[in-house]
From TrEMBL:
GO terms for molecular function: homogentisate 1,2-dioxygenase activity; metal ion binding. The lineage of its organism: Eukaryota, Fungi, Dikarya, Ascomycota, Pezizomycotina. Homogentisate binds at Y354, H376. Gene3D superfamilies: Jelly Rolls. GO terms for cellular component: cytoplasm. One of its GO terms (biological process) is L-phenylalanine catabolic process. Residues 14-283 form the Homogentisate 1,2-dioxygenase N-terminal domain. The keyword Oxidoreductase applies. Pathway: Amino-acid degradation; L-phenylalanine degradation; acetoacetate and fumarate from L-phenylalanine: step 4/6. Fe cation binds at H339, E345, H376. The keyword ATP-binding does not apply. This is homogentisate 1,2-dioxygenase. It holds the Pfam family HgmA_N. Its EC number is 1.13.11.5.
Length: 447
């Protein structure tokens, strides 16, 4: 082993490496990644999330030590196109690029399907074959996955539960995911979803290019918003099945679904080390900041994670939340202002109410989309209330959690999202902004 023979013994125990876990002590090789024979007869396998030569601060690689390699499966075959709902653009399914403001009523639960078949593409932009863009999906499921595993070759899943609990068995360990938590499952990581508390529903932002990371803090300093120490990664856990057992492996590949069969469990990683792994985060740990003098800062101050583009400061996907917070700004219209944005904004509501939409219509499990340069802002009820409110310190958002997927890209809406789901509120504009009244008094106009 490539290790120094020190004259003074070390009496202490350490975690090996900065990002590592082993279910059996000694399963990680010491000082090297691919020994001639890995410990305990395991296979060494590398999982690459970036090019080998990506800059060190961007490089994402993990070594896994497993009972059988991931390549040990039969040929993939394409699944029946009517059995899944993630296709982006085909001859019969296209994205609709429209400037209309859109809002959806709460999406339905679906107890008849599992995770794989409960994914629905709502909107998106770009092309996963070029590793460009993003997809916005809704999930609704009521059945456990069986002896199966799923992975997306298209991008990283950022999962936002709205209802129910997900028990996610990944190759690198297990994650329990509940509403008000999020998880990121990187491209290629295989996993199985079971539902310990019954039906589930939620939202996903799939990032086709790059990976999610913490935003830069700039003048904020070294701490605030989502702190690195609060993210949780799974520890190694494996199934030891000595007898051959058939498993089915699903692959989302260019938003189409394929499957292959194998005679062993996909969940046989005994140890791993590296920086490419799934993780989760409790949104309740978000350290919110805001104005303590006047005006409403840009909503970028609520960014939890960002998927940067090649242009510094511009995101393919930002994940933003609007958590419980104090509003104390003086002489200020405190809700978010009226806005036309070069970015597209897809919003969802996990629970409670959103303070900029007090007139109803934006409800938990629903959503809205304000595309590039589509005007939006507080509804008429919120405007009248905030314009005449007593400006004392006021806490908003208790029992509430709204979020936004913001993108620099113009997103198109899928056929399912625009029509087949039958959830689009046709009266959205009439309900929200048509009732706004003229308050302007021209000082130069003679009475």
């Amino acid at each position: 082993m490539p290790v120094t023979n020190f004259s003074h013994p070390d009496p202490y125990s350490y975690q090996t490496g900065f990002d590592s876990s082993e279910a059996i002590e000694g399963a990680l090789p010491i000082g090297q990644n691919s020994p001639q024979k890995a410990p305990y007869g395991l296979y060494a396998e590398k999982l690459s999330g970036t090019a080998f030569t990506a800059p060190r601060h961007e490089n994402k690689q993990t070594w896994v030590y497993r009972i059988l390699p991931a390549a040990a499966h039969e040929k993939f075959v394409v699944e029946d196109a009517d059995s899944y709902h993630t296709r982006m653009t085909t001859e019969t399914h296209k994205l609709h690029h429209i400037p209309n403001q859109l809002r959806w009523n709460p999406f339905d639960l679906d107890e008849k399907v599992d995770w794989v078949h409960g994914l629905h593409l709502v909107a998106g932009s770009g092309d996963p074959t070029l590793k460009q863009g993003l997809g916005i999906l809704l999930y609704a499921a009521g059945k456990d996955m069986g002896k199966e595993a799923f992975y997306s070759a298209d991008g990283d899943f950022l999962i936002v539960p709205q209802h129910g609990v997900l028990d996610i068995q990944t190759e690198l360990g297990r994650i329990i995911l509940r509403p008000s938590e999020i998880a990121v499952i990187p491209r290629g990581v295989r996993y199985r979803v079971t539902l310990p508390n019954g039906p589930v529903r939620g939202y996903i932002c799939e990032l086709y290019q790059g990976h999610y990371q913490l935003p830069e803090l700039g003048p904020i300093g070294s701490n605030c918003l989502a702190n690195a120490r609060d993210f949780q990664a799974p520890v190694a856990a494996f199934d030891d099945e000595e007898e051959p057992t058939e498993y089915r492996l699903f692959s989302k590949f260019n938003n189409s679904l394929f499957s292959a069969r194998q005679n062993h469990t996909p969940f046989d990683v005994v140890a791993w080390h590296g920086n490419y792994y799934p993780f989760k985060y409790d949104l309740g740990r978000f350290n919110t900041i805001g104005s303590v003098s006047f005006d409403h800062p840009d909503p970028s101050i609520y960014t939890v994670l960002t998927g940067p583009s090649d242009h510094v400061g511009t995101a393919i996907a930002d994940f933003v939340i609007f958590p419980p917070r104090w509003l104390v700004a003086e002489n200020t219209f405190r809700p978010p202002w009226y806005h036309r944005n070069t970015m597209s904004e897809f919003m969802g509501l996990i629970c409670g109410n959103y303070d900029a939409k007090t007139g109803g219509g934006f409800r938990p499990a629903g959503a809205s989309l304000h595309n590039v340069m589509s005007a939006h802002g507080p509804d008429s009820d919120a405007f009248e209330g905030a314009s005449n409110a007593e400006l004392k310190p006021n806490k908003v958002g208790d029992g509430s959690m709204a979020f936004m997927f913001e993108s620099s890209l113009m997103v198109g809406v899928s056929e399912w999202g625009l029509k087949k789901c039958e959830k689009v509120q046709e009266e959205y504009n009439d309900h929200s902004w048509t009732p706004l009244k003229r308050h302007f008094v021209n000082p130069n106009k003679k009475v």
